[in-house]
Amino acid sequence: MPINPLFITDFNRVRLEFVGHYRDVCENPASSTLWLDVGRSSVLDLTYQTLPVKNDLSHFPVPFFDPRDNRQVTLPVVFAGSPDLMQQQAASIVSSWFGSRAGWRGQHFPVMYNTLPDRNAIVFATNDKRPDFLRDHSAGKSAGD
Known about the structure:
The chain is largely without helices or strands and 145 residues long. The protein has a domain at 57-134. Helices cover 12% and strands 9% of the residues. It has one helix and five strands. The chain has one helix at residues 85-102; strands at 73-74, 77-79, 107-108, 111-113, 122-124. The strands form two sheets. A three-stranded parallel beta sheet has the order 4-2-5, with helices on one face. The model has no long low-confidence stretch (mean pLDDT 87).
């Protein structure tokens, strides 16, 4: 049965309600002809489409961490190459912060080098040490500039 996507919000519950009749009047609610069994092997098949989201941190920590999502947090950490000590410390702090938010969900922080994954990721870069996919971006300015 198709569901209008306008009814889908950021948190949803599906409730099944069976309304059945075997007579026009005087039905016995305990009659086996009125029962519906939704078994453990029943499935709900969803077709969904991911919507594009602008690079905007105003909803932080979303999209990196969504407190309404009960799955394990998987957040790739990307470096241009072998990270120096400062980048390692920065990645440790950020990963620790997200890990504390993940709590019981668990967390996984795969490390990638010079490759942008097909999902949201935290990229650690400096003007001198940038991944190739950021080469065309203008250089950042320091707080003193």
